Amino acid sequence: MDNATLQRLIAIPEVAKRYASDLSDLDAEHIPWERAPEFKAIMRTSQSEYDRVWAARELAQWGDDEGYDFLESYVCDRPASEEVLMPHRLHGYDDTNTQILRSAMRYWARKYDAGLGDLARKRIFKLISRIVTLSNTSSFEISGMFWLIKEEGFTEYLPLLKEHLAAIIKNPTLHHWKVADCAHFLMQYDPDFVTKTMAAHGKTLADFPNR
User: Fold this and answer.
1) Rg of the chain's alpha carbons, rounded to an integer?
2) How distant, in Å, are the alpha carbons of 49, 80, 160, 178, 209 from that of 15?
3) Distance between CA atoms of 177 and 181, rounded to whole angstroms?
4) Burial letters for 190-209: b for 16+ Cβ neighbours within 10 Å, e otherwise?
5) What pTM value is reported for the model?
6) Span 8-46, pLDDT tens digits
């Protein structure tokens, strides 16, 4: 995608410039839906995988079902890959799934605001579950989803987070801050599980100070 097209597509509508820093921040009434066909054309036909995923993320963050469907298929219907599509800005590992996770949560929030929160809650479970599972053996982080449990009561993810902690504690060098984040979070819900899981690998919570 050429830069002129990109800048046109991501431009904040004049009415929203006082509060929004990017398109995902827009109030529902300020979303430029007239751009959606162009985003969808990029998502469906672009030769660039990066651009296809980017366009789908933007659409999903507006609550668009087709954009969300693309992301779910992208994550759930293909083998795990070590390709670095969207690199982490500091550490360079692939951060694509973290970005997609954020888009999925914003998709739910849009649907919630539209009175469709319960349906969207069920819908995002497959995608978020797959991302958590992939994070068990990859560097990217998932701590951004913890608010779904703490603030929204999505306790259906707690078993997955327990599996996540049990997996990443096996490689604390790779997953150090992820171990700390997950362990301290789960202490609020099942401290006995956290203590026993860490002890099984010769560790305690003190080995992973909360950041």
Assistant:
1) 19
2) 32, 41, 41, 39, 44
3) 6
4) eeebbeebbeeeebebeebe
5) 0.94
6) 999 999 999 999 999 999 999 999 999 999 999 999 999
